[in-house]
Amino acid sequence: MSEDTYDEGASVADEAASLLKHISVTESNYEQAWDILKQRYGPIEDNDADVAILSHMATKRSTALLATALITVKNSTGHYTVLRALIDQGSQANFISERAAQLLKVKGTPTKGTITGVGSTQTEVNLAVQLEILSRYKCNFKLNVEAYVMPSRLTTYLPSTTIADSTLTWSHLKGLKLADPTFNQPGRVDMLLGVEVYAAILKNEVIRGPPGSPCAQHTSFGWILFGKIHNDIEERKITVMHHHMDFDELLHTLWELDCDNQRKLTQEEELCENIYYENVRRDNEGRYIVKLPFKSDVILSTEGNTRDIALRRLTQLERRLQRDMKLRTEYTKVMQEYIELNHMEEVPEEELGKPSVYLPHHAVVKDTSETTKVRTVFNASSMGSNNVSINDELLVAHNCKKT
Question: What angle do CA 354, 358, 361 make, to 5 degrees?
C-alpha cells in the first residue's frame, strides 16, 4: 500500500499496525513509533480531542425499606454469632456471604450451581454450608438451613440511606420487639433467607400504619419492617457521564495492544503458570491456597534485615493513628477482622528465629468506598539490608485478562 492509496477493506488500526510491525514493543521505542505515525497521519494538535459531558441530579425523600433481622447463627462446632439477614420471600434459596462463612469457621460442602437474578444475570456458587439459626427473642425456636456461599457481596448496604430520627415516631410501632433494631442505619447484610425460612417464621399479626410509614409483620425473629417510607433526610444522586476521546491517548492504546492475541509466553511467565497449576488448592472452608512463585530455590530476601525498617514504619503508623482517633478505630477493626477470619495469627515464639521477611504496612483511606473505607496495604517491595525485596524474587505472570 503506497502512502497516498488506501485499501477499502483495511482499517486505520490495520495500517498503523503494519507500519509498526518491524519495531519491537518496548518503552524505549515509543518515540520512534510515534514519529512514524505522525509522518503518516499528519501533525496532531494538542487539543485535538472530542469531549461530551452529560450531568443529571435527582433528589428524593422516600426510601424503600426491606425486611431485615438480627439472628443468632450456630455452626457445627457450637459457636454463636449474630448476623444481619435480609428476609426475601422472592428467593428460592438461602445465601451467606463468604466473609460471614469464614467468620463462623464453618466447613462447607462442594456444590455446583448457578444463581439467576433480575435480567437473567447469573452467578456461580461452589460451596454450601449447614447452619442452625436461632431467634434472639424465642429461646425455644431454632431452624436448620442450608445456605449457599456467595463469593461476592449479597447486596449493598441496607437501607440505602440513613432514615432520619424525626421519622421514627410511628405510633403503630411503639412497644414492638423489632427483629432489627438497627433498621434505620445502613449496614452490611450477611445472610439472605428465602421463602422457605420466611414461611417457617411467619406469624399472623400484621400492623399497617399511615401512608409513608412501614408495615410491621410478626415473626419468630421479632417484628420485621418493610415498605416505602417518607424520609426527612433528602437523598441526592448526582450522575455525571463524561466521554473524552483523545487521539494521542488512542495511539498510546494502539501501541500497548498486542496484535497477536496468542503470543508465546516467556520462560518466566510459563514457569509462573506451571507453579500455579501444580500448587493451587482449595481447603474445606472454600479458600484458595497458592504457593508463592519464587524465581529460585535460594531466597535472598530472608537473608537481609527487614525487621528494622518494618518497625520504623510501624512507629510512624502508630504516631499517625495517635493523631487521628477515627482512623485508629477503623484500622483496629480491620486488624481484628483479619484475626477473626484467620487471615492473620500471632507467630509462635519458637518460629521467631526462622528465616523470614517482615512487610511494612500502612493505612489507605478511600472515603468514596461504600464498604471498606480503610484498608491495609502491605509493602512487599520494601528492601532489606541486602537491597533485596520479596517482590524482586517473585515471578510475574502474564496478563490473563481477555477482552
Answer: 155
How much is the average pLDDT of 351-373?
A: 81
DSSP annotation of 202: E
Cβ proximity of 272 and 396 under 8 Å: yes
pLDDT of residue 172 exceeding 50: yes
Alpha-carbon distance of 164 to 155, in angstroms, equals: 22
- Reduced 3-state DSSP string for 169-191: CCHHHCCCCECCCCCCCCECCCE
In DSSP terms, 224 is beta-bridged to: 217
Between CA 35 and CA 23 the distance in angstroms is 12
Contact yes or no for 62/231 (Cβ under 8 A): yes
Percent of the chain scoring above 70 in pLDDT: 71
Q: Is the pLDDT of residue 5 over 50?
A: no
Whether 246 is in a domain gets the answer no
Q: Is 270's pLDDT higher than 70?
A: yes
Q: Is residue 325 assigned to a domain?
A: yes
The residue among 374, 267, 369 whose CA lies nearest residue 330 is: 374
Q: Indicate which CATH number applies to the domain containing 197.
A: 2.40.70.10
Ramachandran quadrant class, 242 (left: phi over 0; alpha: psi -120 to 50; beta: rest): beta
DSSP 90: T
Three-class SS of residue 59?
Answer: strand
pTM of the model: 0.47
Q: State which residues form the domain around 327.
A: 289-345+356-393
83-141 residue pLDDT tens: 999 999 888 889 998 888 888 888 888 887 777 766 667 777 888 888 999 998 887 88
Indicate whether 280 belongs to any domain: no
- Burial label for 375, CB within 10 Å (0-12, 13-18, 19+), is middle
pLDDT at 208: 92
Residues, the chain, total?
A: 403
Cell 433528589: give the residue.
Answer: 59
Domain finish residue from 196, 213, 236 = 236
Q: Are residues 212 and 296 in the same domain?
A: no
Split into its structural domains, the chain has a count of: 2
End-to-end CA distance of the chain: 30
Looking at the fold, whether 94 and 189 belong to one and the same domain comes out as: yes
Residue 222 backbone dihedrals phi, psi, to 5 degrees: 115, -170
